[in-house]
Amino acid sequence: MEKKLILRGLLAGAVGGLLSFVFARIFAEPQIQAAIDYEGARDAAQEALSTAAHAHEGHEVFSRTLQGNAGIGVALILFGMAMGALFAIVYSLCLGRVGRIQPRNLSLLVAGAGFVGLYLVPFVKYPANPPAVGHEDSIRDRTDLYLLMVLASVVLLVLAVVLGQRLQARFGNWTATILAGTAYLVAVGVVMALLPQFGHLAVNEASYGSHASETPLPLTDSDGNIVFPGFPADLLFDFRLNSVAAQLIMWAAIGVVFAPMADRLLSPRTAKIPADPITA
Amino acid sequence: MSSTTPSGSIPAAAATPVVVPLSRAGLLLFGTALLAMLVYYFIGVDQGAYSIFGADTHIHEFVHDGRHFLGFPCH
């Protein structure tokens, strides 16, 4: 049974990854290219100013065409399959251990937990950034902090579910769910408040001064005149909104595609259609 | 977590029984989770902050756009 569930999770994840790739190819790639163009023009302006040159090496291993089509496609589909596998594992473990939730509803709930726990909560603290936003020297710190945020979010979400199950006996489903959800929000809020913002990392404060984020500010010459604009705010917002939308599409697809397959697998006797694996 | 459902009094028609007991499926689930996290690592992290294959950047460059878009920190 667990093999069948994992295979179906992989399939649902591949569908989710494929859909988010189609979305990304249409809506995100133009923004990624615009960000890379901004970075190139800014580097040129910086070099013209001949201040401490931070030349972003044009080490082209793969062309932009390859990165923007095959690269992002492979990345999103493989990522979707990995998330589908994790989803199926959690789903399998939840079966029979979460009360009277039906197989299809459980599929949506686990997918929702994946979206919120693995992506959305970490995003709120450390949002997705397009190319050109992010200093090279801080990559180690930023990665460590991001993964720590993901880990904290997932662990706290599991603890919140366990807490909800404990409270259920005394308060009933409705109140227990609200209490556990609130506890989760408060706990991740505390973690977010304790972790530093990227702009305040020691390596960044030393080179760029005290700012909340790494988003490029306007370039100025020695007289303080702006010679190159800061990173476009609209572009940053659109990229982040699309990043959330793509993950929402991926997780929603995982939950929705997996649900009927699990339902058929787990309750063959109650299924309305007799054994017919081809029915959509 | 125990392998039996804690709420045995729930109506049998509505409850889903434990389908995947940990004793039997633990290894498969663990192995799959490990593989999935390895994929997560290679798409999101490798050849950026950490690198398994030294200074090589092929994986990083190939999945570059996806890495940004999935929310991972990148250069």
From TrEMBL, chain A:
Membrane-crossing segments per the record: 70-94, 106-125, 145-164, 176-195, 244-262
Keyword set includes Transmembrane: yes
Keyword field: Membrane, Transmembrane, Transmembrane helix
UniProt key word Coiled coil: no
Domain of life the protein comes from: Bacteria
InterPro entries found in the cross-reference section: CbtA_put
Pfam families: CbtA (PF09490)
Protein name from the UniProt record: CbtA family protein
Species in which this protein is naturally found: Kineosporia mesophila
Automatic annotation (TrEMBL), chain B:
Database matches in InterPro entries: CbtB_put
Name of the protein this chain belongs to: CbtB-domain containing protein
Keywords associated with the record: Membrane, Transmembrane, Transmembrane helix
A Pfam family annotated for this UniProt entry: CbtB
Entry superkingdom: Bacteria
Residue ranges crossing the lipid bilayer per the database entry: 25-43
